Amino acid sequence: MNIKGKLLEISDTQQVTNTFQKREFVVEYAENPQYPEFVKFEAIQDKCNLLDSYKVGDEVDVYFNLKGRKWNDPKGGVKYFNSLQAWKIEGASSGGTGATPPPSAEPSLEEPGWISENEDDLPF
User: Fold this and answer.
1) Which of the listed residues 54, 80, 97, 101 has the most CB atoms within 10 Å of its CB?
2) In angstroms, rounded to a whole number, what is the distance separating the alpha carbons of residues 85 and 36?
3) Phi, psi (5° rounding) for residue 27?
4) For 115, left (φ over 0), alpha (ψ -120 to 50), or beta?
5) What are the residues whose beta carbons fall under 8 Å from the beta carbon of 46, sequence distance 6 or more?
6) What is the dihedral of CA 16, 85, 94, 37, to 10 degrees?
7) What does the pLDDT profile of the chain (124 residues) look like in tens digits?
8) Angle at 113 between CA 108 and CA 114, to 5 degrees
9) Which SUPFAM superfamilies does this entry report, sorted A to Z (predicted)?
């Protein structure tokens, strides 16, 4: 899954345990500009550094996995949590490769040489 939007917030990397770290960030997603959505993502472990080359206000394309968890609270209730784990971030204008796409060919107004109005070579 992926969405394009504007980086609104970037948090510092949090060392949750000795072996686990995460970094959260918020993207303003404006599918309908009149009612923008503010989507919080997290980058975990070695993906925390994905945000190092971006700043607040940059347009980005975020590729992510939707994760869901079930938790049984001590009182016997069940709660469900979702997280959006980013695994790739690109500048929205880069197109992913950093290379400029080749220009599209202009349509030719000339008829190809193999087409002739006077020739009827159909076998039926």
Assistant:
1) 54
2) 21
3) -115, 130
4) beta
5) none
6) -110
7) 999 999 999 999 999 999 999 999 999 999 888 999 999 999 999 999 999 999 999 999 999 999 999 999 999 999 999 999 999 999 977 544 333 344 444 555 555 555 555 566 556 5
8) 120
9) Nucleic acid-binding proteins
67 conformational bin, left if phi > 0, alpha if psi -120 to 50, beta if neither: beta
Going from N- to C-terminal start, the domains of the chain cover 2-91
- Which residue matches tokens 């975990």? 44
**Close Cβ partners of 1 (under 8 Å, ≥ 6 residues apart):** 63, 64, 65, 66
CB 61 within 8 A of CB 92: yes
Distance CA 117, CA 77 (A): 79
